[in-house]
Design a protein that fits this description.
Elements: H1 2-13, H2 17-21, H3 46-58, H4 93-100, E1 103-106, E2 115-118, H5 132-138, H6 150-153, H7 157-166, E3 183-184, E4 192-193, H8 214-229, H9 233-261
Antiparallel strand pairs: 1-2, 3-4
Helix pairs in contact: 3-8, 7-8
Length: 267
């Protein structure tokens, strides 16, 4: 058992976890994709974030929640609708318009009753179901996961989510059994998934006129979900670069000081 754990750890350290992943019958390792936000200097494509938000609203939000994301986050630095005109995200006109498109349960009022009102930038995206039991009952017993941290929560992250979204429609291997109401997807654990294919060619009409191909939609929504799980990524990377520059300059100054102090000392 100990040796097995050591081998698994070694495989993960070498970046070969996809080999173990693909060992299950009918299962396949996620395909690698180049992301605009990858790397130490990567940034989010604002247009892709906006298109990804549109896909979440029109396709994903009917089943999946986004509990940890508030409307104001959309207008904050690094967000899809960041604006120099509205440094305070709560005053961002686009954010206010998006929030107002949702009805939020609030209360109790003076009579002790709950009521509904238009959304505010301070509100979080409302969940599609009142509780997990209702969610399971509406999805054949399967509980749709919250998407706030889905990219961070899944092995292979963005590559896995993209591969999963594009992994439907392949021929089912002879050694894989698909129960009624289930679907074959070689990128899902066990290769059998309850979620029906969420994307199809021309499913939506992008507000910016971009061609809504399957690959484009998958990339856009995954980019948005990556941002949702790490909305301050760009600021964090900028801070990291500044710290490295500072440490580099500091190291040079320390070295020069060392040379000057010990210049006249015989070794």
């Amino acid at each position: 058992m100990k040796m097995t754990r050591i081998l698994v750890a070694a495989v993960a350290a070498l970046g070969l976890s996809g080999i173990a992943w693909a060992s299950t019958a009918g299962q396949r390792a996620p395909e690698h994709h180049h992301w605009h936000n990858a790397g130490p200097f990567g940034t989010f494509d604002r247009q892709a974030l906006q298109r990804g938000l549109q896909i979440y609203q029109e396709v994903c939000s009917s089943c999946h929640s986004l509990d940890l994301v508030h409307f104001r986050n959309l207008g904050e630095p690094g967000g899809p609708f960041e604006s120099e005109e509205f440094p305070n995200a709560n005053d961002n006109a686009i954010v206010m318009q998006i929030a107002a498109g949702y009805m939020i349960e609030d209360g109790p009022d003076d009579a002790g009753d709950m009521f509904e009102r238009a959304g505010l930038p301070s509100d979080a995206f409302p969940a599609p179901f009142a509780n997990p039991q209702q969610a399971r009952g509406s999805n054949g017993g399967a509980l749709p996961p919250d998407l706030s941290l889905i990219v961070k929560a899944r092995s292979h992250g963005a590559d896995y989510i993209r591969s999963l979204l594009l992994g439907y429609g392949e021929e089912v291997p002879h050694d894989v059994t698909i129960a009624p109401g289930k679907h074959y997807n070689p990128y899902f654990a066990g290769a059998v998934i309850a979620m029906a294919p969420p994307l199809s060619e021309g499913l939506i009409t992008y507000a910016d006129g971009t061609e809504p191909s399957m690959e484009q939609m998958a990339e856009d929504v995954v980019t948005f979900l990556t941002w949702a799980g790490d909305p301050h990524m760009e600021a964090r990377k900028q801070m990291g670069v500044m710290v490295l520059i500072y440490l580099f300059i500091f190291a040079i100054l320390v070295y020069l000081a060392y040379r000057q102090i010990w210049a006249n000392v015989k070794h």
